[in-house]
């Protein structure tokens, strides 16, 4: 029940107050501005990652990740392989109930193509504390380009509810400084 009921029972035939009409026009124009600027923010603000996506099967993707982990494993951490690929290599990471696997060790300042997929449900790949968030779907291989700019330990969390163990679904990426000998070409070579 309204405080002051309309004079007529058919309220939509009532005239619109001037102030209300002004706010409707402002909201409509703001909505148009925001809609149009979404495209500009992609380029100007670098808000969204440019990514590729390809169809795959969970079993085929799992085989790729297993091969990748066996080839580049450097150690284990709580039973999970820590994988250090060659600088600039394609890197494979999979989400499954309830972990991101394997742990990655990347080099600062080197660009990598990160391949992501899920074996079971939709998961969220959220790299903390950076602002990278991607929905990862089973049956699709998502590829993003990533160049770490800081060294340290970065956490991966799932930000799409994926079941009872969702709150435990985490992973890690270590970013290390390039070794000086690897970063600078040897002076003795080429003489």
UniProtKB/TrEMBL annotation:
PROSITE patterns hit by this protein: COX2_CUA
**Source domain of life:** Bacteria
Q: Where is the Cytochrome oxidase subunit II copper A binding domain?
A: 86-189
Q: Where do the TM regions start and end? A: 21-44
Q: Which GO terms describe its cellular component?
A: cell envelope; membrane
Molecular function (GO) terms for this protein are:
copper ion binding; cytochrome-c oxidase activity
List localization entries.
Cell envelope
Keyword Transmembrane helix annotated: yes
InterPro entries for the chain: CcO_II-like_C (IPR002429), Cupredoxin (IPR008972), NosZ/Cyto_c_oxidase_sub2 (IPR051403)
The alphabetized UniProt keywords are: Copper, Membrane, Metal-binding, Transmembrane, Transmembrane helix
Principal subcellular localization: other
What's this protein's name? Cytochrome oxidase subunit II copper A binding domain-containing protein
